[in-house]
Amino acid sequence: MASLLPKPSPLRFSQHRSHALSDSVAVRLRCLPSGNRRVRCGLINPDGGKLVHLVASAGAERDALLREAAPATGLPRIKLSRIDLEWVHVLSEGWASPLRGFMREAEFLQTLHFNCLRMPDGSIVNMSVAIVLAIDDSQKRSIEGRGRVVLLDAGDKPVAILKDIEIYKHNKEERIARTWGTTAPGLPYVEESISKAGNWLIGGNLMVIEPIKYDDGLDKYRLSPADLREEFMRRNADAVFAFQLRNPVHNGHALLMNDTRRHLLEMGYKNPVLLLHPLGGYTKADDVPLIWRMKQHEKVLEQGVLDPETTVVSIFPSPMHYAGPTEVQWHAKSRINAGANFYIVGRDPAGMGHPIEKRDLYDADHGKKVLSMAPGLEKLNILPFKVCKLSI
Amino acid sequence: MASLLPKPSPLRFSQHRSHALSDSVAVRLRCLPSGNRRVRCGLINPDGGKLVHLVASAGAERDALLREAAPATGLPRIKLSRIDLEWVHVLSEGWASPLRGFMREAEFLQTLHFNCLRMPDGSIVNMSVAIVLAIDDSQKRSIEGRGRVVLLDAGDKPVAILKDIEIYKHNKEERIARTWGTTAPGLPYVEESISKAGNWLIGGNLMVIEPIKYDDGLDKYRLSPADLREEFMRRNADAVFAFQLRNPVHNGHALLMNDTRRHLLEMGYKNPVLLLHPLGGYTKADDVPLIWRMKQHEKVLEQGVLDPETTVVSIFPSPMHYAGPTEVQWHAKSRINAGANFYIVGRDPAGMGHPIEKRDLYDADHGKKVLSMAPGLEKLNILPFKVCKLSI
C-alpha cells in the first residue's frame, strides 16, 4: 500500500528566522529530553493504542470481499458521494483510530456532545467531527433487517462492505448546530454533504476492498498513518511536528516551520521532523485546488525554503468542515495517529467568514484555546503561533 | 443558613408497585453492598472533592463585604436579573461545585465544547450548561480596569461581590447552538435571558453577602447541598436517589419512585432515601408555578403516596434551560453535589417541543443515552425508566 515518498534533492536550510514562537513553546511540552542528552521516546501512540487498518490484504481476503460485494449476493448497495468516499479513505487507514467504521449512534452522540469517545478501558480519545454515512428513507427500508451493505464508488464499483450495521436518526439541525455553533445557511460542508443528505445515518464496521486511490497524479503523496510512521522511524525522528494547511505555503508559514524546528533543537531534540500536511479532501470552491497547492509545496522543497531532509510532505485525505475550534481537534487528533507529537496551531484554524454576517464565524483565539483544553489531546504538544493572519 | 426540613406526619408506605425499572437498574451500579451485608459507603463526594460554599459568615466577614459593597467605595455595580440571581444562589451553595463564581472564558469554552471541566489535578467534572453573567458595552466600559464589581438585586440591594474579574465576548449564536442544538427562535431561556443580554460575559469569584432568600413562603424548602447532605447523614441513608421534576407528581412518578426504593432494597441497601427535587428557578410560562407544585408535593407526602420517612422534598434553585440531553447532565451533576448517588432519568428529560417545527426538539432517548456517556458522571448510577411519558 505504501507509496514512495517524494525525494527532492536536499538543499540548504533556510536562514530566515522568526522569534514568534519564543513565548509559546513552553506550553504543554511532554516527553522532553532532559538537558541536552538525547532521549528516544519512540513515536507517540495512536489513539486507542493500535493503529486501525481496515483494508483487506491482496489475495484471499480481498477476493472474498469482492465475491461478497458482487451483485449476485443480493446485499443492499449504497452509492457513496465524493465526500463519503474520502471518509472511507480516512477510516480505512486509521486516521480516526480507534474508529473502525462509520459512527454508530453512541459514537455520534459522544462526538456531538463531548468531542471525545470513552474507550472500554475508561480512557478517553478525542473525536470532534461526526464521521457518518447518511441514507434516505427508501434506502433505509431496503436495508432494514440486513446485517451488511455494499458501498459503491461513483462508477458503481464496490469499495467496501459495512457490517454489523446500525441505523439511527440523522437530526441534521442538531448535528449542524453542535458541530459549527451556527445553523446559518451557507456553510460549505453542510451545503455539500448534509442539507440534501438522507434523514438516517448508518453506522457499522468497514471492510475496505483495496486502498483508496484517486488516479489524479497525487496518489504518491497520499501516505497513510502507517506509511508516515514508518518514514519517521526511518528518519530516526525524535520529534514530529505537524502543520495542517489548505493554502499555498507562504513566507510566514516557512519562517514559522523553520523556527519551530530551531526551538525543538534548542529544547534538546536531535532530529525534529516536519510533517507538512496539506488537506486533500473536499474544500470550498474558492480555496486553491489541491493540484496547484501540491505543485507549490514541491517548489518550496526544491528551492530549499524548507529542508527536504527534515520535511515530509504528504496529503491528509480528510474533507474540510470549516468548523473552527471543533474541527481543529480533528486535525490534531488525526496527526497523533500519524505519529506527530507536536501540532502547530495558528490564528482562527479551520475558520472562515460567517456565512451571513460580516464577521469571522469563530473567535480567532478560540481554536488554540479549545485545542489546549480538549479531552484526549493531552498527550499532544500544542504550539500556538502568531506570525500573521494565516488560513490553515 | 439551614432551613428546617418539613416533617409531615409519617404515613403508610404505598403498596403500589411497578416493574418498569426491572430491566434497567443493572445499569452502571457502583459502590454496592455485596450480598445482603450492609456496607456503608458514606455519601458520594462532591465534584472537585469539596463542596463549594461562597456565602460570608454572619459577623465580621459579612460586615466587611457590606462595607465594600456600599456606594461610597465607588465599585462598579451590576443589577442582576431574576435568572442571574438564581445563578448566584446556585453558585453560592455549591450546586455547581467546583465552580466558584460566574464562568471565566476557559470554563465557558470547556462547557460549550466538552460539557466538562478539567481540574488542576487532571480529573474531569461534568459541567454542561454555561453559568455566566452578561454585561453590555457601556457596563464593560465602566468596569474595565477594575478588579471587582458589586452585584445588586432588583431592589438595588447588594447581593455579592465578584472579584478577580475577567471580561470576554458573549457569542450568543454559538452559545445557543452548542447548548440547545438549534438556533430556532422561541427557546424560552434564550428569549428570557440571552437574546436581549449584553455582548460580553463577566466571570470571576463570587463572595455572597448572605444566603439568597425569596420570601415567598417556600424558603424553608430551599435546602442547600450542605443541608441535604446533613439530612441524609442524619437519616443514615446508604443510598440517595434523586428525582428531578418540574411538574406535579402523578401516579406514574409515585409508582416509579417507590419501585426504585424497592429495587435498591433488593440490591442490599438498607436505607435508600429519595430526594424529591422540584426545580424552583425560572420555568416557561405554561409550566405549573412552583407554589402550586409545592402544595401538591406536600399533599403527596401527607397522603402517604410517598413515605415521608424515606423522602426528602426540597427545592432545586436552578433556572430551567429546556436544553434536553445537555441540561439533564446539569440536573444530574448538581445532585451529586447534594449527595445523590442514584439519578432517575425519564423519557425526554428537560425536553420540549421544537419551537418552530411540529416535533419534539430532542430524541426522547438521547437524554438517558447522553447521561450514561457523560464525562464526569461516571460515579453516578443512572436509573432510566419507561413508565409513561413524563415531563421532568
Automatic annotation (TrEMBL), chains A, B:
SUPFAM superfamilies: Nucleotidylyl transferase, PUA domain-like. Residues 219-387 form the Sulphate adenylyltransferase catalytic domain. Keywords: ATP-binding, Chloroplast, Nucleotide-binding, Nucleotidyltransferase, Plastid, Transferase, Transit peptide. It catalyses: sulfate + ATP + H(+) = adenosine 5'-phosphosulfate + diphosphate. Signal peptide: none annotated. Pathway: Sulfur metabolism; hydrogen sulfide biosynthesis; sulfite from sulfate: step 1/3. One of its GO terms (biological process) is sulfate assimilation. GO terms for molecular function: adenylylsulfate kinase activity; ATP binding; sulfate adenylyltransferase (ATP) activity. Its EC number is 2.7.7.4. Residues 44-210 form the ATP-sulfurylase PUA-like domain. GO terms for cellular component: chloroplast. It is an enzyme of class 2 (transferase). The keyword Nucleotide-binding applies. Its main location: plastid. It is found in: Plastid, Chloroplast. Belongs to the sulfate adenylyltransferase family. NCBIfam families: sopT (TIGR00339). This is sulfate adenylyltransferase.
